[in-house]
Amino acid sequence: MSDLPNDFLHRFELERAGVRGVLVRLTDSWDQVRGRAEYPPALADLLGRTLAASALFTGNVKFDGALSIQIKNAGPVNLLFAECGSDGQVRGLARWAGDLADESSMLGAQPAPLLAITIDNRTSGQRYQGLVPVEDAHLATLFERYFERSEQLPTRVVLACGDGSCAGLMLQRLPGSVHAEDDADAWNRVGHLLASARANELLTVAPETLLYRLFHEENVRLHAAQPLRFGCSCSRERVAAMLHSLGRSEAEAALRDDGQVEVTCEFCNTQYRFDRVDLEQVFRSGQDMPAAPTQH
Ligand SMILES: [Zn+2]
Question: What is the Å distance from ligand 1's center to 262 Cα?
């Protein structure tokens, strides 16, 4: 117990049912994400569960890069963003204006919000984005639909947030399992068992104990824990590229009285400062870039 990390991802299989699963729990990293703003409780809860989901989904995708989940225009929430890298680094934030009553004021807002799941593959430079219309106010159900549509894999997701942690548990039915004949029965059975998981169990009980408690007749095979941690991929180069994309006049307009442009990363609060000379460099290096093909 003592060497159990606070932030982890466990893959597992339920061998009898032909089902694979992922269990994640975030405590220290969630504390870092949550501490960046005075989130209203309902928004913190939604952000925590979305962050847990982003980590959960990296468990079943083989890639080198980052998986992000964005919810846009959810009523008073302009943007909610959660990301987990294949290196186990998580980060997230939400921007909102005004009062927030409960989850239905966000996911149930009209016009309907949009949920996007994006996989950025660092090695290939490819980006895949799946969009899910937010048709009802249950986050876990939206994710289940996403997987059923994009991967044609029956999927069950439960998410929890509270008492300083967030957590998620996901099951996916493997295609062509050995027990093909009673697949449907097995899938229904483990779905019911998953639904019996209580939020406080997901948030506090040790992984082996939790999975045994839920699925003890299903021959649980638990893989070693992968540690997760808070981390941000921002860099001075990326901020310079952002300033370059703003254009010279806008970037110069952002110069303060002390002759500096200050950009603070919203994810990790790192401050980047550029003075006039730095800006000159940013735009000069821009001129050295290959010119875009001109249209005639
Ligand atoms: Zn950052």
Answer: 14
- Per the document, the length of the chain is 296
Distance 270 CA to ligand 1 centre (A): 6
SS3 state of residue 282: helix
Using the mean position of ligand 1's atoms as its centre, give its distance from the Cα of residue 114 in Å. 25
Adjacent-strand bridge partners of 79: 72, 95
Cβ atoms of 168 and 53 closer than 8 Å: yes
CA–centroid distance, 232 to ligand 1, in Å, is 5
Q: Which domains are seen in the chain, by residue range? A: 8-230 (3.55.30.10), 236-288 (3.90.1280.10)
pLDDT tens for residues 66-97?
Answer: 999 999 999 999 999 999 999 999 999 999 99
pTM of the model: 0.89
Which tens digit of pLDDT belongs to each residue from 211-261?
Answer: 999 999 999 999 999 999 999 989 999 999 999 999 999 999 989 999 999
Question: Which alpha helices (H) appear in the chain, and where do they start and end?
Answer: 28-34, 41-58, 104-107, 139-150, 183-195, 199-204, 207-215, 236-246, 248-253, 276-288
